[in-house]
């Protein structure tokens, strides 16, 4: 069985209402990803007939502070209830809550040993919530050089260490290769090392965060490795279209050959 392709409705067809974006992506045969569910009419999105891949799994909070952990756990529970409406199987988390422009609400790129312990405990509790609801939380790596300065636990090495340490079937990685290329590089070996812990892969090219073929990453080589190792999960394009959105989806499908849904 091959991997499946998804596309982010937050970043494509941006001149259209969100429900129409979802419908367009679905009609092209891709799964659909969304971000903040609290700003959307989820019943209307479900009515499009689209199959959703993931959505944001919290509204507020962080992994380490007492107040932040309580907020993250509470809003993770709210997110699980929202996920039932669109049947989203995966709910996305970050090292801390992100605010305007992707900046961390509580910056803290340097973390202590106690922060690691608190983060692991928070993620374990979130994973238990996911298990009770039959859904999986995924922890996404970010980059601090361009998009998310000051975010703790941003590197793929950090998110992998947390997910591996918690070792819970309802907590996996959202391995974002765009962020990893900016922060760490060595994408093929990163994929190989992280493979047992990956719940989803996200992609965009560097620089610019647009579709494959617009930057420096040879995504055809990454796709070949994913086929070689038997990856059968989701690959989501979380990227802006450099021009026409349909052309961007064509480029994505060409870089990651797979039979799309009719």
TrEMBL record:
Q: Do you know which InterPro entries this protein is assigned to? A: HyI-like, Sugar_Epim/Isomerase, Xyl_isomerase-like_sf, Xyl_isomerase-like_TIM-brl
Q: Which residues form the Xylose isomerase-like TIM barrel domain?
A: 43-245
Keywords recorded for this protein, A-Z:
Carbohydrate metabolism, Isomerase
Name of protein: TIM barrel protein
Entry's family note: Belongs to the hyi family.
Q: Which domain of life is it from?
A: Bacteria
- Where in this chain does the entry annotate a coiled-coil region? none
Q: Which Pfam families match?
A: AP_endonuc_2 (PF01261)
